[in-house]
Amino acid sequence: MATLIDIGVAAAINILSAIAFLLAFGILRLQPFNDRVYFPKWYLKGVRSSPTSSGTLQKFVNLDVRSYLKFLGWMPAALRMPEPQLIEHAGLDSAVYLRIYLLGLKFFVPITLLAFAVLAPVNWTNDTLELESTKSPDLEFSDIDKLSISNIPTGSIKFWAPLVMAYIFTFWACYVLFKEYEIIASMRLHFLASAKRKPDQFTVLVRNVPPDPDESISELVEHFFLVNHPNHYLIHQVVYDANKLIKMVEKKKNMRNWLDYYQLKYERNPSISPTCKTGFWGLFGKKVDAIEYYTTEIDKICKEEVEERDKLKKNPKSIMPAAFVSFRTRWGAAVCAQTQQTRNPTLWLTEWSPEPRDVYWPNLAIPFVQLTVRRLIIAVLFFFLTFFFMIPIAFVQSLANIQGIEKAAPFLKPLVEVPIVKSFIQGFLPGIALKIFLIFLPTILMFMSKFEGLVSLSSLERRSASKYYLFLLVNVFLGSIIAGTAFQQLDTFIHQSVNEFPKTIGIAIPMKATFFITFVMIDGWAGIAGEILRLKPLIVYHLKNSFLVKTEKDREDAMDPGSIEFSSTEPKIQLYFLLGLVYAVVTPFLLPYLLVFFGLAFLVYRHQIINVYNQEYESAAAFWPDVHGRVITALIISQVVLLGLLSTKKAANSTPFLVALPVLTIWFHIFSKNRYEPAFHKNPLQEAMKKDTLEHTREPHLDIKAYLQNAYIHPVFKEVDDYMDISLVDGVEPESALVPTKRASQRNTPVPSKHNGSSTSSSSLLDVHEERS
Amino acid sequence: MATLIDIGVAAAINILSAIAFLLAFGILRLQPFNDRVYFPKWYLKGVRSSPTSSGTLQKFVNLDVRSYLKFLGWMPAALRMPEPQLIEHAGLDSAVYLRIYLLGLKFFVPITLLAFAVLAPVNWTNDTLELESTKSPDLEFSDIDKLSISNIPTGSIKFWAPLVMAYIFTFWACYVLFKEYEIIASMRLHFLASAKRKPDQFTVLVRNVPPDPDESISELVEHFFLVNHPNHYLIHQVVYDANKLIKMVEKKKNMRNWLDYYQLKYERNPSISPTCKTGFWGLFGKKVDAIEYYTTEIDKICKEEVEERDKLKKNPKSIMPAAFVSFRTRWGAAVCAQTQQTRNPTLWLTEWSPEPRDVYWPNLAIPFVQLTVRRLIIAVLFFFLTFFFMIPIAFVQSLANIQGIEKAAPFLKPLVEVPIVKSFIQGFLPGIALKIFLIFLPTILMFMSKFEGLVSLSSLERRSASKYYLFLLVNVFLGSIIAGTAFQQLDTFIHQSVNEFPKTIGIAIPMKATFFITFVMIDGWAGIAGEILRLKPLIVYHLKNSFLVKTEKDREDAMDPGSIEFSSTEPKIQLYFLLGLVYAVVTPFLLPYLLVFFGLAFLVYRHQIINVYNQEYESAAAFWPDVHGRVITALIISQVVLLGLLSTKKAANSTPFLVALPVLTIWFHIFSKNRYEPAFHKNPLQEAMKKDTLEHTREPHLDIKAYLQNAYIHPVFKEVDDYMDISLVDGVEPESALVPTKRASQRNTPVPSKHNGSSTSSSSLLDVHEERS
Prior knowledge:
The structure is a homodimer of 773-residue chains. The first copy, chain A, is mainly α and 773 residues long. The first copy, chain A, has 2 domains: 4-195 and 369-683, no CATH class; 210-354, no CATH class. The first copy, chain A, has 37 helices and 6 strands. In chain A, the strands form 2 sheets. A 4-stranded antiparallel sheet of chain A has the order 2-5-1-6. The first copy, chain A, starts with a helix and ends with a helix.
């Protein structure tokens, strides 16, 4: 077992690296040439633009010494923006996402105080471990273990302390969760109620339109809704199967990049006309003039694109059996989204339409039977992924044990026994091994979720997050505990049965405390500090900037603001919740490390959300029920583990008291689910009616049909049109002619601005604010 | 273990008692004075009435010898009525209920044939049991065991036969289930679509109306729906808290019975004026003239009732926060029932209204928070009921073991060792012990379900059925297997862990085959034969007839047609499904007994449904998803048991093949649930729109408001009014004056007949038929 010194070394290393990252960030962010890396959000908002005037050097390097003195100034700045303005600025999703970290602080600050006030003295004032170590000299223990529940003698009456604490912690957690659910449900409802007119409020996504020999999909949809929603139906938009067109657009984009690259090369050195080969990956084939080649190729694809687009629109087979149906009123849409249309529940499936930018187009056409088969396949695949991934992790984990290394490679013994190396190995290796595994995972899980056939990006992210959480639970949490123990207690463990499971984990949990403390430091502290440094986008941006960027627009395309990536970040937070809840009673010494993590993460992510991340969609915090459910899961796991631990400690008369806890927790979950979850799935008619009435009074002559006409057109059609414009009128930005505003980006802007005339940088945000409220 | 002779004796006893019951029924049903016991359904329909003319003796006893010769004629008669007519006659619930027995036959006839063709030879052609019995002479085995899977030697390749059979049986079961689900879903939809105008088509039950300081509940409901469903809302009816009134009506009913009794006594012997005591239970207090006393008491209560009723209607506090809201169109009601009304999902809860006769009034006012608490309480109580009930059963089970009895009471040994007594004990006792336990159970479970706060009788029955099934599963199925084994293998068993569970059951299952065969005979065969004899209603009717009956109306009240009692009968059928599926692979010898049960039960229940049972409500087969789900549960249990059994038989390489089975079965369940279950919960708008349009074209000037005005009035108000009429105009039947038809009963008539003029017995049913189709 690791000693306090090991932990101290690991903490020092991690704190130093975190501080180094923060320092580097503090300096880099002040350099104007990094502006688009560290403040892309403001560029997307149209509030900032590239510095054009002033000296050339000043354009790249910040020479103002005073600004370096307050290089930690971003921290208070990140906290300064009030929540309502944050919602305006970055959307409700982001604001609620930050509340997860806040929830962690709300959870664990009181729990830590109470645990250190009550449990630490109870655990410390025993000498079980000292007695045991005199009996069996092999057993090592540290001061951390003296603070843990392991130090209470078997059968002691002192076990009532952790038991009562488990109750108090559970009640506190449930109370905080319930309050938070209430707040977020009302934030969501308020957000939806105060949102201004958006196409998805009027629109329902209809899937599985049955084929009809006499009518086209479009006619069929129109007739069906004219008959069954006679007073409410307005228009509909069919969905085209544009996958071929998407490929063309991708190909053209790639070619344009090459063209830009060669043009820039030519400009810098006009003496040599750049050449390239036409074959596979530019390695084989005929040598041609690069600029000429790509220009003609792009022209060719442009024409093909237009042809393909026209063909799509004419060919009835390219219309998928799905449609976006819009209604005259929000009430009509709410009714249609919540009701079953026909007696066959697998046809004419209606659901509330996602935002246009949230739609995941390729999945719209998957029929019902295929969906269930796909789900089965993914469930089986995911099972195998989760359980066979464990083998390499278990192997690496076992190596991280000093004894394991010495046994496996005896010649390393002298090196490993050097105190600092030993501490380093014990503090660093296990966390890093896990980390490498985990980097590749979210992409695979997202692919699996896409295969399952969900139709919006937000639901895809939620689905991936669920999978990732399960994976982390099995592999990081259980895997670390059991595999580690398995190599220590191999003989006693392998032939154990399932109901011994909580016991085994219960025994292993206190022993794994140091491992998880180092895990929190590496994955948590250093990971968060690395997040704010944005090393990868920094490098990629500067590479692109030097090789590809010609115009302002190119520079904007080179900018990679990224996003929160809910699907991979949220499950990780949940892992910390799990660790905190499990160790709160067992080894309270872990809790302060978590508090640092939650505090730092809150700060960093608030800064990133304000300055960096681009909002890709707005789901109005639709992910909260998942977050809530996972915290409940963690709570139940912690209770079961404690049950197992106490039953091995011969505190058996406490079992009935502990069994009641998970029962009550599950009941609480059902209760809060019934109470608040409908707010995240359903659309109350009263709210819809209110907004309709208000709108009708304010704008009695509104032409809603024109407003909705083209709201749900496949983005690739728009893109084709855009590119057409660009290739025809090269160099002129078409959107600046259409929308006279400073907003320079088209990417994921929440709503097209209706302001005429230019607005200054500072007032623009406030204008949006007024407009929305 | 029991031998073939034991089974033979048990079978003989049970077959003889079943034949005796059937014979008794064959004779009793022909006697006219039993007519109201064996054919009450026809009286309720108004097709039959008491014989009035002809000779006095003939009125009571059937002297026509020829009719006795065809005393089994009821069997073909029961099968003769075609299903559509059966639906007209007894409702869709009854018709679909019968299909559960048919499903059993469809399941098990091919399975039995296949099992005897394939598994029986495979099992028989081994000598494992003979070899084992030579090794350990204690081990007894019978020819039944030679036919079971126990006879295959450990590790034999022959285990592929049961394995492949398990696959075939599962696929067959799923296929039949899927087809059946399809048929029943379409029957339900057709039934609903072809049903004529009924109040519940237009009505939605609204619960948890929030209190408002300024408005009464009634005004609040009206305003809310006028605002949020402006084009569709028609009227509403509030719900009164009439529990006090109900008690008064009960008390008066009881007093009327006593009055009738004393009046009859006085009529028979006019010389003595009957007296009674006014105190507790008529045992203490002052002696008074009975007739005078009860007459004045009844008058008093009648007046009190009217006062109470008027008070209820005036007092705003007696109005519960619930209402039946009716809409102009079925479309409007379908929309309101399926949507969420306000942002708080615990207020203004709307659901499709049950039929007026299906409403369970006392539960309408329970608020949301109380509901969840009540559910928690019942879940905990039910858990204790299920698991602590096992102790006495286990005790009785263990006694039923001959060795157990001899050990417990050695002096009984000579008696017990008499062959016929031994067979009797082994064949009879265990089944009867269970039976006695089970008789009292459904009432308790129904009480628990009522406490949970469901609002319709049909959902209460479904809920009770679920509980009863779980109870039977744990206590009868698992309890019989494990408790029995526990007393045999006590040492090896008690310290076993949870993952050994399937193995333990797997080992015990073949040993318990004879027990379950006798169980099928006693509970199944004799139980069904007892059902048709209706001994209890027979006795009660004749007792009432001699002591209370004065008028035709009294005689009708004395009649007890009973009903299917889904809540207790369906779980029992499910137990047979479970036994059949579990033993199909293990001991196919059990299957023929099941076939006899399903065949006989189908016949008997078809007869009872046609001639006896009164339909208390019509839920349009809403219970089918439950039935389907339970058969799937049985299927999965059978697969897990087989997995456990084979793993003990060292056929370990078969495990992966068997694990796939439950996964596929669960997937099938999810698939068929998604495909067909919505048909049982939701109300497709298309169907509603069709019916609306049709009705509007046919009857453009229909006054739907008048039609719905009083549809959902608490039945006790009607009853008070009825009694008022009776007490005012004694002896005259008020309804005969209002509705001039032969229909003599008011009890649970589906819809008031609109026929004017009398119809003859034979044509009346056909008329109803025409009217509906």
